[in-house]
Amino acid sequence: MRSTLSVTLILGASLLAPQWALADAQSEAIKTAIADYLTASSERVDESQITYKDLTVAPDGDGYQVVFTDVMVVADEDVSIDLGSPKFTVQQQGEDWLVSNVSLPPSVVLTDKSEGGTATWAYTLVGMTATWTPRFREFKALDARMTDSTVTLRDTGDSSEAPLVFQLGEIDLKIDTVEDSDTSWSHQSVASLGPISVVDPEGQGSLKITQVLLESGVDGLDPTAYETLLKTTAELEAAQEAKDAAKEKSLLDQLLAMAPVAVGTTQSLSLKDLTFEDTEAGWMNVVMDSGSLAFTGLAPKGSDTGSVAVTAVGKGLVLSGKDLDPDDQLTSLVAPENWDIKIALDKLPVKEANELIMQMAYSALDLTPEPEVGFPKILDAASKAGTELMIKPLTLQGKQAAITGDGHAKVDPSAALQATGGASLLLTGIDSLQQTLSAQLPQEMQQGVVGALVFLKGLGKAETVDGEVAYRYVFDLPADGNATLNGQPLGALMGN
User: Fold this and answer.
1) pTM of the prediction?
2) pLDDT under 50 in the chain at which residues?
């Protein structure tokens, strides 16, 4: 991943020449601007340095051809990345720049002297075009495809040890930005790779995934607010480098006071056909048809509240193995094969939530003083806004047992416990699961695990679902704080 980012940095750097240089159409001026930017980029990353043997810029039709020779990124005294000699063409498109005719070396090599190893990323570049915007120093558009992608890890200190090879298959990268209006942009990016295959050099195990897909999107992005955010962040990093504590605090306060720069955001990771196998005894084998994890956030303009949601979906999970330890054996018996869970927060105070996210993000910068994460502040704001938590759907389907239901809670400062809510769960297949665990678990685990199931059944209300006994659990938390389960005081059920 570091190699990919470094290649992107080199490609993008050439497009950040000052407008006077580009407008003057002087190749030497463009070359100087590129070199200056690479130097500045190195200074912004601790202990890193971008070097190259030669850089040439020459007119090429309506644009310019940029050619690097022997590019190296030295991350620190031990780690270096050899990027070879990339070349490409840049052409002005309004305020932006089009990158085309990209030629990259057939491989990128990372060397780590401290660990005595190398990582070589080899690929075939099918094609790449991009649009760079100097305003944000980012890609507004990108369309790249690579095939036959592999990463090979070698231990240079032991030539007898076989390398570990990651087959990554095809890599597709797409970025698309639409300027809906002067004050609202939308941005979508998609990265796809696969099929992925990793085989243990000694032949004891393997990992295979048909496809990994990463997607992200931003709607209603305010370009002016985003530009201000980037500028202020850069100034904060400069103040930190200069050890100017007073300026650090002033800039951090500005960032924490900023409103969200976009109306909505989405992030997701999904995979298809995962298989992990290990022939060695005691290892858990894993098979899964598909899985996904997604996050969405919404902060409407002009509204004091917004919403966030996390969704997890999985299908076809099967765990198995031979000579498993008791804990792994229990996991293989009770783990869900399919699941569908969505957890959402509605009426979330936007200003305080955004401030909390900023505080958590910038606390990692080792600022002076370190920003305090304001959990009490957002809790107080949530109380006033009436923030609601919702879990719907909630479905966990195992080999024999299943859990279905939903739940909700609302922050209520007038309530005895500062919240009200409830949940309804239905457990099916518990009797069958109990019999299986009694038959297959070691004797030393049966008393605790099976005893817990017996206790759980006793708390539920038995009913018949599809011809078998199921257990219903209805939890209620009223304003007076006296929680009940199936109408009975919860404290009494727990022996309190």
Assistant:
1) 0.85
2) 1-25
